Amino acid sequence: MRIRVGTLNAWALPEPFSRDVTPRMQAIGAHLADLDLDVMAFQELWTDEARSIVAKAARRAGFAHHWHSAQGLGAGGGLLIVSRYPIEAAGFEPFRLSGHVE
Predict the structure, then answer these.
(1) Alpha carbon of 56 to those of 19, 51, 93, 101: distances in Å?
(2) What does the pLDDT look like over 59-93, one tens digit per residue?
(3) How many helices (H) and strands (E) does the chain have?
(4) Pairing, β 39-45 against β 65-68
(5) 8 Å CB contact between 79 and 42
């Protein structure tokens, strides 16, 4: 069986690190249906709003299953996985921050 996987750093940092990311999240969501993928992984969906926009668009595009990390900063590490297939198991391994966030 062949599984097609994509990944994207959505760069949806919360303010004050980034301005309103809603238009970018909507644009990302609008193109999900065009992708010939079975699984898509997103990084840096740091806010509930950004994650919600992308997850809803993914469902409309046929990605019926999703998982996001419930650990980490605010929105759970900013990770979201959407899939056309059931996700049977998932995990998140946080790395210790060394240095300055900014």
Answers:
(1) 21, 9, 26, 29
(2) 999 999 999 886 555 545 689 999 999 999 887 77
(3) 2, 4
(4) unpaired
(5) yes
